[in-house]
Amino acid sequence: MNLKQLSLPELEQALAPLAPTPTAVRKVFAAVFAHGATTVEDVCRAPQVPKRVAEHLRAHAELPRLEVVERRKAEDGFVKYLFASPLGGRVEAVRIPIFDEKYIVCVSSQVGCALACDFCMTGKLGFQRNLKTWEILDQVLQVRAEADRPVRGVVFMGMGEPLLNYAETIRAAQVLSNPAGLAISGTAITFSTAGMVPQIRRYTKEGHPYRLTFSVTSAIPEKRLKVLPIEKAHPLPELVDAIREYTQVRRERAMIAYVAISGFNLGLEDALALKDAFEGIPIKVDLIDVTDPTGKYQPPTAEELKAFRDHLQVLKSPIARRYSGGKDIGAACGTLEASQYGGTLLTPRVTGA
């Protein structure tokens, strides 16, 4: 019984033959996630865990951990964790500072990625496997254990397409948001998708409290196909229909992630294409400078970005610019590839410094 793999209802079901009280089950769950137990014995010693439950856990339970290969701190305060899993493969998580108050953790959901977005280093690795729920959660648990500020948000924007690992990522979000788990608000948990239309529709139908952000990058299909091969499987009109349904059900604006690439998708025609594609759909546009270590794609100049933001006024929608930090350690959006360079190597005792 892998205690990090189970949501609270699943733990209740697993322990049902022992007839524990709801409080006892919740104490086991909280010992693992709220209090970050590192051994089964730590769980067994938690208050209000009955002797028969403790004996069962000692005989049948496990608490696996990812190995921290290294931690690197960037000049801007972002910290990238490189993990190795006993199940195979290496993944990365990024600790993102929000002013001096809190952290958000960007987690990986797959080893590699099958979508092969042309500006993304993870896509160049190819797909190796989906992560298990416990592997996703352990990224957050280990970052939290070393942090000097509370972890108040999680974004599924690391390695992999989270909606292609749907069951495991949703279970992870359920644990993250459970008051007896990591107690992170559902609205502070975000899934980033390149446009998996069937899974977006499923997500909307199931009514999860978490947020989606949709990677569009161009509303001109021919341009989008050049950088996002998913355009072939799920063309932009299909994605827009799914986003329209999402906004209608949730009654909120959809976050449209737009990777800004110099000389490629920053003209007036690009802004007008966005306007036409999303006519009547409440959106907000999140501009993200491309970060491509290969040099094939370049971020916009200040002049290009200003001109494009002016063009985007035709949308009459909120426009924001997302800061993509940790560039000097390979922690920026699109650069995660289990690399080891730059920054300052940290040890557990000074990671939160």
UniProtKB/TrEMBL annotation:
CDD domains: Radical_SAM. Its cofactor is [4Fe-4S] cluster. Its main location: cytoplasm. GO terms for biological process: rRNA base methylation; tRNA methylation. GO terms for molecular function: 4 iron, 4 sulfur cluster binding; metal ion binding; RNA methyltransferase activity. It is found in: Cytoplasm. This is Ribosomal RNA large subunit methyltransferase N. It comes from Hyalangium minutum. The lineage of its organism: Bacteria, Pseudomonadati, Myxococcota, Myxococcia, Myxococcales.
